[in-house]
């Protein structure tokens, strides 16, 4: 009987994923630059720039999660055959990517704070952190459910792209993954509006997406368990 | 002597099979890959799995490793399976030691123990042990040696090796078959997918999958 310990069964896969990401210097740079580019390109002409940049963070963070899920798929089957539980591998990646995403969010929040001086900086920080909190499970769920890279990336572009074009007052936007984060980023500008509901909705979405990813990988390796 | 897997009636060499796949059927879309295939392998037996391209050798190996659920048939395996796929699927940016470390806790080994045992296995295959070379910079043969070592790490009662020596030089290839004999002597059942006719003298039994099964 193999003794399971969370530090090795969850943190070791996370550590190896971190080592891989760190060795992709260019990808890490782009991960940070992409939302900044969205923000910088719209800052001069629109008050909506922090929202655009914030939601654009979903592109890079979800993209990293999708990539992580898809490139690991072949070896994951052998790791599960060896004795890992699929959810342990997934949880390890979630922890690593959330940590990385929060780091990017912190940099991004600092840049917006300097560039746009929002009325409520806390809502700004909350908004970008919520983007990351939801982007990682979104990417892991897409990576677990969709078989190929192209389809996965198209889904990501579709969902984030639609969300970028919608106002939070639009009824459709209320059902999108980053509605809560978008709402907070909008409210950061004037400092008015409720904060609890957007946070609850976004966290619930993140938990739901991660649950979906767990169900998908459990189904894939059902014969091994 | 080669036997057809579809009609295999020859029992394994000795004792109760450690690998018992009976009546396996599998198809991808409308294409039948495996139809009523039975494969029994005894402890310590060396079996070569042969057949034309597309006969379903790799699919049968994946089914036996429980990585793929057959549409019909039963599978029984005693003990742990070590599976070496045809395509390694390793992480390009990790080193050999990091791969060994990653597999260790799942196999009930500490990180240090797993790396040490893995290095011993790799050294036996002539792998440049201890170098901090990322997998993407390793030769195809060296990647395959790491692939094989990961299948062996932690011990196994059944080894499923899908053309494990691709990219091996002549010395490594001979060395591989010496190891197969050694694993067999330890009671480990070894199934090797092969296209090499000269390999067939090195096994106890040859099972040929029929074309378009």
Q: How would you describe the overall organization of this protein?
A:
The complex is a heterodimer of chains A (225) and B (213). Helix content of chain A is 80%, strand content 0%. Chain A has 225 residues and is an all-alpha fold. In chain A, helix 5 (86-116) runs antiparallel to helix 6 (121-145). The longest helix of chain A is centred in the N-terminal third of the chain and has 34 residues, at 49-82. Chain B has helices spanning 57-64, 96-103, 111-124, 140-152, 170-185; strands at residues 2-4, 19-28, 31-41, 46-50, 72-77, 81-84, 158-162, 189-193, 205-208. A 6-stranded parallel beta sheet of chain B has the order 1-9-4-8-7-6, sandwiched between helices. Chain B has a 3-stranded antiparallel beta sheet with strand order 3-2-5, covered by helices on one side. The longest helix of chain B has 16 residues, at 170-185. Chain B is globular. The interface between A and B is medium-sized, with 26 and 28 residues.
Number of strands of chain A: 0
What structural class do you assign from the helix and strand content of chain B? Answer: alpha/beta
**Count of runs of 4 or more consecutive helical residues of chain B:** 5
Largest interface: A-B, 26 and 28 residues
Based on Cα principal axes, name the global outline of chain A.
Answer: elongated
Shape of chain B: globular
Quaternary structure classification: heterodimer
Structural class of chain A: mainly alpha
| Strand line-up in the sheet with most strands of chain B | 1-9-4-8-7-6
Beta fraction of chain A:
under 5%
Helix content of chain B: 25-40%
**For the terminal residues of chain B, how far apart are their CA atoms?**
20 Å
Mean pLDDT of chain B: 89
Run of helices and strands of chain B: EEEEHEEHHHEHEE
* Poorly predicted ranges of chain A: none
Helical segment tally of chain A? 9
Helix proportion range of chain A: over 70%
Major sheet size, sense and barrel closure of chain A: none
The arrangement of helices and strands of chain A along the chain is HHHHHHHHH
Strand content of chain B: 15-25%
């Amino acid at each position: 009987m193999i003794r399971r310990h969370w530090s090795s069964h969850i943190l070791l896969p996370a550590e190896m994923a971190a080592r891989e990401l760190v060795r992709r210097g260019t990808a890490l740079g782009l991960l940070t630059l992409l939302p900044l580019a969205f923000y910088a390109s719209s800052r001069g002409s629109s008050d909506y720039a922090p929202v655009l940049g914030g939601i654009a963070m979903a592109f890079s963070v979800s993209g990293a999660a999708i990539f992580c899920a898809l490139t690991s798929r072949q070896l994951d089957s052998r790791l599960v055959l060896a004795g890992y539980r699929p959810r342990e591998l997934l949880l390890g990646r979630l922890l690593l990517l959330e940590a990385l995403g929060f780091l990017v969010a912190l940099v991004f929040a600092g840049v917006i704070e300097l560039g746009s001086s929002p009325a409520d900086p806390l809502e700004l920080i909350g908004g970008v952190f919520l983007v990351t909190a939801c982007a990682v499970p979104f990417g892991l769920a897409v990576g677990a459910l969709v078989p190929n890279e192209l389809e996965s990336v198209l889904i990501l572009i579709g969902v984030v792209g639609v969300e970028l074009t919608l106002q939070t007052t639009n009824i459709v936007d209320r059902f999108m993954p980053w509605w809560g984060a978008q709402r907070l980023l909008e409210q950061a500008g004037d400092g008015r509006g409720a904060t609890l509901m957007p946070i609850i909705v976004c966290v619930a979405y993140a938990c739901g997406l991660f649950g979906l990813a767990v169900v998908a990988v459990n189904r894939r390796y059902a014969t091994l368990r | 002597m080669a036997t057809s897997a579809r009609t295999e009636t020859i029992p394994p060499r000795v004792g109760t099979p450690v690998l018992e796949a009976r009546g396996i059927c599998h198809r991808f879309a409308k294409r039948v890959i495996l139809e009523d295939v039975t494969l029994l392998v005894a402890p310590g037996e060396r079996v070569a799995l042969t057949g034309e391209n597309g006969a379903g050798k790799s699919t049968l190996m994946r089914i036996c490793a429980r990585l793929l659920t057959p549409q019909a048939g039963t599978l029984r395996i005693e003990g742990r399976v070590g599976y070496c796929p045809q395509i390694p699927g390793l992480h390009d940016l990790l080193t050999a030691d990091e791969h060994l470390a990653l597999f260790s806790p799942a196999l009930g080994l500490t990180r240090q123990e797993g790396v040490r045992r893995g290095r011993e296995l790799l050294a036996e295959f002539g792998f440049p042990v201890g170098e901090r070379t990322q997998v993407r910079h390793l030769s195809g043969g060296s990647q395959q040696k790491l692939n094989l070592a990961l299948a062996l790490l932690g011990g196994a009662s059944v080894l499923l090796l899908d053309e494990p020596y691709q990219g091996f030089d002549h010395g490594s290839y001979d060395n591989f078959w010496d190891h197969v004999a050694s694993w067999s002597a330890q009671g480990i059942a070894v199934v090797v997918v092969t296209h090499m006719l000269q390999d067939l003298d090195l096994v106890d039994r040859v099972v040929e999958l029929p074309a378009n099964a």
